[in-house]
């Protein structure tokens, strides 16, 4: 028992030392002139001084010095987040910093990419996939990009919808045309709710996810009913049936792709399950301008 406690203590010391090393190395790479920290006289050390970091983080220099020296001191999430901001850590680096401090990773702020335009390269990929309907969405079902084939498939002019409303679950609750494009809209909604619940388990107490859930709840009592079933599921490549604006039923295979393991953006490409489906897709694209 005593040996186990010693190992745990040594692990804590090792983490504290690695945390301190991480802070020191970042501090030495920052340019004081870029950060507007004017200095008089000769600069003898690279990067920022410890007192400059402490000032930027609005904490005491003694406390910051102990933290950078790797001493096993207790630190609050709020203070550690201030230090991360002061040293300009990105999201991945901040998460690593919190793990080294043996603290729960803080809930992420609402993802700014919800309203951030898709990169030109990603949009080109979507456009080149025509006539296959394709779009990119986040784990919270926000649509970040789409091609012309997808817009026609769902029968909704997504360009005319505000960015904050381009969300698959939200549209299925409030947009009649969107629901009409689904042969089995209630089943589709239940599946999305189950996926959303499973993903939300990874973001407990995250304000962005809480706000998104509340918006769904407020939009329709139907979502409350579905949510209360407490169903969970994972992402699968399945056959989905769509109803085109002319009444034609089109069965398409969903294909899910991710840009990287750390990116929650998911590209879904719909491909026909047979030659008849390919002909219907081609006819859909010919009714208006081609991609």
Produce the secondary structure layout.
Elements: H1 2-29, H2 50-57, H3 61-68, H4 77-86, H5 91-100, H6 120-128, E1 134-137, E2 143-146, H7 148-154, H8 168-174, H9 176-180, H10 185-200, H11 207-219, H12 221-227, E3 239-243, E4 249-258, E5 266-272, H13 275-286
Antiparallel strand pairs: 1-2, 1-5, 3-4, 4-5
Helix pairs in contact: 2-4, 4-5, 8-10, 11-12
Explained architecture:
With 291 residues, the chain is α+β, with helices and mostly antiparallel strands. It folds into two domains: 87 residues, lambda repressor-like DNA-binding domains (434 Repressor (Amino-terminal Domain)); 171 residues, Beta-Lactamase. It has 13 helices and five strands. The chain has a five-stranded antiparallel beta sheet with strand order 2-1-5-4-3, with helices on both faces.
């Amino acid at each position: 028992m005593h040996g186990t406690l010693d190992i745990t203590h040594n692990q804590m010391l090792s983490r504290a030392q690695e945390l301190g090393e991480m802070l020191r190395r970042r501090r030495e790479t920052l340019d004081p002139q870029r950060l507007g920290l004017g200095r008089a006289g000769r600069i003898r050390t690279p990067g920022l001084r410890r007192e400059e970091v402490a000032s930027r983080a609005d904490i005491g220099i003694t406390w910051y010095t102990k933290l950078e020296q790797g001493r096993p001191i207790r630190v609050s999430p709020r203070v550690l987040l201030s230090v991360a901001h002061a040293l300009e850590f990105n999201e991945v680096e901040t998460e690593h910093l919190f793990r080294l401090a043996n603290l729960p990773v803080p809930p992420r702020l609402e993802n700014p990419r919800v309203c951030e335009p898709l990169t030109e390269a990603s949009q080109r990929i979507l456009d080149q996939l025509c006539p296959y309907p394709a779009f990119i969405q986040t784990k919270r079902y926000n649509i970040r990009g789409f091609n012309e084939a997808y817009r026609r498939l769902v029968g909704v002019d997504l360009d005319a919808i505000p960015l904050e409303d381009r969300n698959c679950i939200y549209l299925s609750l409030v947009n009649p045309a969107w629901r009409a494009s689904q042969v089995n809209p209630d089943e589709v909604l239940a599946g999305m709710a189950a996926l959303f619940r499973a993903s939300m388990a990874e973001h407990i107490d995250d304000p962005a996810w809480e706000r998104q859930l509340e918006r769904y709840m407020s939009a329709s009592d139907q979502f409350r009913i579905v949510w209360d079933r407490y169903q969970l599921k994972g992402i699968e490549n399945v056959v989905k049936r769509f109803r085109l604006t002319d009444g034609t039923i089109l069965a398409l295979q969903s294909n899910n792709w991710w840009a990287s393991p750390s990116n929650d953006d998911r590209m879904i490409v719909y491909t026909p399950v047979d030659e008849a489906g390919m002909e219907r897709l081609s006819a859909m694209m010919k009714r208006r301008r081609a991609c």
